[in-house]
Amino acid sequence: MATKKLTWPSLNFNEYKDTIYLLHHWTQMVGKVRLKKSPWQNHSWHVALYVDSQGLTTGPIPYEGGVFDIRFDLTRHELKIKTSNGTRDRFPLGGQTVASFYEQLNEKLKFLGIAVKISTKPNEMPVCIPFAQNTKRIPYLANEAQKLWKAMILIQNTLGVFRARFRGKNSPIHFFWGSFDMAYTRFSGATAPEFEGDVPNISKDIMREAYSHEVFSIGFWPGDERLPEPAFYAYCYPNHDSFKDKQIQPESAYWSDSLGEFILPYKSVQTSSNPKETLLSFLQSTYEAAAEVGNWNREELDCDFSELEKKNSNITI
Predict the structure, then answer these.
(1) How far apart are the C-alpha atoms of 215 and 190, rounded to whole Å?
(2) CA dihedral sign, ordered 225, 27, 279, 15
(3) How far, rounded to the nearest angstrom, does the alpha carbon of residue 33 sit from its chain's CA centroid?
(4) What distance in Å separates the CA atoms of residue 310 and residue 254, rounded to the nearest whole number?
């Protein structure tokens, strides 16, 4: 059977913003379940979701009966919960409000014997309506959710290529439900000045631990009211004054004073003759800029396995 090539879908913030509103709240609830049941990891790596072959997943979460996972299946548009005991349950995403999703999630977890109590308020959102009280009826557009997921598959594959070029401490390719974005981070190995910024509805202690060491971070988010378009971003912490003056690629990328980071519109990648290479040029050039202003030891941190891949491409292991 021939494999159909996945192409970069067109994304429009105004068309999917209501669907994003719902998914942002729903993923927060599921992410909070993972947070409550998992051992704490550095930089809150234990809370994230991951893009997979069906949508977004928590991966295995420990509990009294073994492990369970929760998945947003964006092929069938269902929330699925499965345990290592062989029990499972699900419910549709279509027609749900924030409040009804919260009610059904709690009901299904209880039915499966998973005891957990999460915080009922969203994080990192300027408007903080408790989940159970948010009965606003807005449409969930299955096609828009699926396009976003298919874009994130291609983005994750490209980030994976970029990630392979670094041997220092670096993060998995996460989906963070707090800010509703995909993110990947590299660390120089040095500690950073104490973080003093403000993020809506999140503890300063958590943010200080997240930025306890020097980082270069890149990622993708589908847009919000501050920047109503899907885009890639790149920033470093601490944010050196000279970082914004560096020349980066491609030409459509720019520095945003209001956000304090480099921005590359998703459309510039999607409409490029070679989207993967266009995105890689942004990732690599912003990393080189951050490493230069931060005086990172690139000889020790960088790596390139391309020649090894060529030599071993025909070897069976």
Answers:
(1) 9
(2) negative
(3) 17
(4) 35
